[in-house]
Fold this protein.
Amino acid sequence: MKKLTVLAAALALSASYGAANAQVSGDTVKIGVLNDQSGPYSDLAGKGSFIAAQMAAEDFGGKVLGKPIEIITADHQNKPDIASNIANQWIDTENVDAIVDVPTSSVALAIQEITKNKNRVHINSGAASSDLTGKNCSPTGVHWTYDTYALAKGTGGTLVKEGGDSWFFITADYAFGHALERDTTAAVTAAGGKVVGAVRHPFPGTTDFSSFLLQAQSSGAKVVGIANAGTDTINTIKQAGEFGLVAGGQKLAGLLVFLSDVHSLGLKTAQGLVVTDGWYWDRDDETRAFAKKFAARNGGKMPTMVQAGVYSGISHYLKAIDAAKTDEAKAAVAKMKELPINDFFAKNGKVREDGRMVHDMLLVQVKKPEESKGPWDYYKILSVIPGDEAYRPMKAEFGCSLVK
Amino acid sequence: MSAKSNGSAATPVLYTVLLAVAIAAPFFVYPQFLMRGLCLALFASAFNLLLGYVGLLSFGHAAFFGFAAYVTGHLAKFGTVFLPYFTPFSTPRLHWLEIPMPPWTPELAILGGAFAATLLGLIIGGIAIRRQGIYFAMVTLALAQMLYFFCVQAPFTHGEDGIQAIPRGYLFGAIDMNNSLSMYYFVLAAFILCFLIIQRTIHSPFGQTLKAIRENEPRAISLGYNADRYKLLAFVISAGLAGVAGSLFALVFQIATLNNVHWHTSGEVVLMTLLGGMGTVLGPMVGAFLVAGIQQYLAAFGAWVSIFQGIIFVACVLLFRRGIVGEIQAFRRGGNKAEEEAPAPAVTSHSAAPSPAGE
């Protein structure tokens, strides 16, 4: 009898071992962090995302289904062809199971295509384009942290409810800027506000925003929406400070601004700016605990929402592998869609059928220098926007073939 | 000419070895990296035809490379073409002529891209060729920037998203190009064909005339050559070949983006050519593979990519101004007998001022 039990146990053990062995490709779960580490997005993602990914793997215990987790990284230099080259090589020769982060829309869309064709997981945290869960959606692609629609909706809709019912846009004159302006306008009018005017500035290469700012000032609008990105946003905000827009009673609404941008602008320049954020480090004890651990490894810099999203996305992915008993991409992502997300990043978050991770967004305002208690204490939270209101509803008209 | 007269015994052997290496390479090195290298090598060779043999520094070659990539991508993915035309009478305005077509096969799409680049070369070259030296470089840069801004706005380029998921299709309707080996050998064949065109151009009487213009334009004019016409033709050939490189690039990576028409790309091709050795046949290829290798294999070290590129460029300018291949050739010439001809000083003077003794 005893012999039999031992035999059964041994059989069961070997069976489960064999199963795990067969289900994890290459005997490791390899995750590649592909992002910009030398250019404009290196502060909001960059090395910090790699650190976040490493922390996620360590906190998970370094192993999933008994196999080690390995994190690798590369700098895509914001060039889609280099990114595509690296991603293909990762998948074909290094057996990478998942590619994460990937800021810059053109690069993210290229990676979405590659991971779809080669059946690997793509967890995007850094890119803004809502096409990733629209016409470019993929059964193995998950868009984790934010998108242009949620930012526009959050800032536009919520500010109107708080009294900012007349808007003026300063828009970068290209497809991205137009999309941001269009989505925000829709949110503003839906909430009962009105747009009194808009001005378009050439992209790229505009450095002098004075004439646009003067128009915004004289329009008398309560809110000036800044529908551009990166250095353009930083220059607009700086010059708006010089023209005294905020001091004159107008509100500045940045439609794509990250914590790292506020850090480089400084509170004196950025104060009063209203921004939608996917996550803020100083929200509660859980977020502060993560941020403290992260900052200790990242030269004292607090995590941005993109970096926190990388951690959260990878943790959830590993949990899904554990539950699905396989690292096969479609099965793992299907499991990710099944399991709810409850961590320091999101409460009751869920991954929708189109790959959109829906979680609460925050409308925040940049503090005045005298309100700030210390370094990185930048935001006060104005309101929490429930995920279902913030994100674009899942409808077939947005072009995702996974939505019926 | 210098390379030919110098190593006439060694050259066929060298080319045979290179060809063998190129055929065997995809079994040892990741094919997509090799294809990227070949595309950039072709791009740099086309650029070198202008800089090394005519002495014209074009700072806008990304325009031809990138625009051809867009055209090829559009033709291979959608096919349908919209052509603008203008009605000056009654109500003058712009119209669009729609020519509905099915998606093109890859070889035709590449020809379409190359044709577009050639046409663009005719326009940009026709304007830029009237100026020399730094003014020439500035005019090409300005026109290429105009094209860049056009591509930011034009609907068919899909703005900053670029044309994504370009199908590689079937070559001649039969060979599946999604197989990376068949794609590689196709790119290699196209590269060799273009390389032979460049060789033929350099070593023809036409090429000799170009070199004469490079060395001393007023003297070439006094001998009865129409220098402007020669320069324009060289510019158009260079643009067309850069277009082939861009078209191949679009099919290899299945994307065409703003990055390809950005002036960074124009700068990179200058870098590749100077690193390898301008005015040498193999130099641009060596430079292209070096730069592609740095970008690919140092990517894991993050910000070091650009720092490394910078250091190598500075070292190149300070230490070996003829470029890698140029220095090797000069060393071998020095080892044999001193000077059959002296192309080196002419080459180095170009790096300081693209078109010396112009006016």
Q: What stands out?
A: The first helix of chain A runs from residue 2 to 23. The domain at 151-277 of chain A is CATH 3.40.50.2300 (Rossmann fold).
